């Protein structure tokens, strides 16, 4: 008999074999009360970063560095990850994870501050990849900013796009769930974007900015 969807999800999430660097970063995430990306999302980030051949990437929500290490492992050797977090302890812990992963310090730019203040200061059409994993109430603003920041052909990735399985459940009308439904619709209908929603982790929304 075929496995059900839940078994297939558990199977795929159990496939990535994370090394000590990622496992320690996960431990530190939990100590800080931060939810890191799932192993399936981490593996997807590495593959997407590698496939995109991005040289410049932005992350909103460094946490303790799990997603950053996954992105940096996919990005090219000269690529730079700009990562933003409002919590200085989280950023310090993320830097620890990057160092443990052997990432040279000049490949990361850590910016402490609220993303709503920091993103508008970044340059238009200067980034190949934007990954968003923080602060759901402001997600529509971050997505608007991401579209501005991306070069044509650049990729947007939004984590937790199914809001822990609540988006697909019409009876759930919580604010965060509605926000993610709205963001999903905006991205799907945006004339400049090609998009896909994957059920990996708690949902990974992907979009590529069309070439002009
Ligand atoms: C879900 S965690 C990120 C986990 C990380 N991406 C990982 O996989 O390891 C969300 C992070 O966003 C940060 N954050 C929350 N609100 C923020 C805001 N308004 N601007 C920037 N960072 C914010 C939190 O401090 C936290 O570290």
TrEMBL record:
InterPro entries reported for this sequence: Cation-dep_OMT (IPR050362), SAM-dependent_MTases_sf (IPR029063), SAM_O-MeTrfase (IPR002935)
Keyword Transferase part of the UniProt annotation: yes
A GO biological-process term: methylation
Keywords recorded for this protein, A-Z: Methyltransferase, S-adenosyl-L-methionine, Transferase
Domain of life: Bacteria
Source species of the chain: Arthrobacter crusticola
Name of this chain's protein: O-methyltransferase
Single Gene Ontology MF annotation: S-adenosylmethionine-dependent methyltransferase activity
């Amino acid at each position: 008999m075929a496995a059900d969807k839940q078994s297939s999800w558990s199977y795929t999430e159990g496939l990535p074999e994370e090394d000590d660097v990622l496992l320690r970063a996960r431990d530190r995430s939990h100590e800080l009360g931060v939810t890191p990306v799932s192993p399936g999302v981490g593996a997807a980030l590495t593959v997407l970063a590698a496939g995109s051949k991005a040289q410049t990437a932005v992350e909103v929500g460094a946490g303790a560095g799990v997603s950053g290490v996954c992105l940096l492992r996919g990005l090219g050797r000269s690529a730079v990850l700009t990562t933003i977090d409002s919590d200085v302890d989280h950023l310090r812990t993320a830097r620890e994870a990057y160092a443990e992963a052997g990432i040279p310090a000049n490949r990361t730019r850590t910016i402490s501050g609220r993303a709503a203040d920091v993103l508008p200061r970044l340059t238009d059409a200067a980034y190949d990849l934007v990954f968003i994993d923080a602060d759901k109430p402001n997600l529509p603003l971050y997505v608007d900013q991401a579209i501005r920041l991306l070069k044509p052909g650049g990729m947007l990735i939004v984590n937790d796009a199914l809001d822990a399985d609540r988006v697909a459940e019409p009876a759930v009308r919580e604010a965060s769930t509605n926000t993610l439904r709205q963001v999903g619709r905006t991205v799907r209908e945006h004339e400049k974007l090609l998009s896909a929603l994957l059920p990996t982790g708690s949902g990974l929304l992907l979009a590529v900015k069309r070439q002009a």
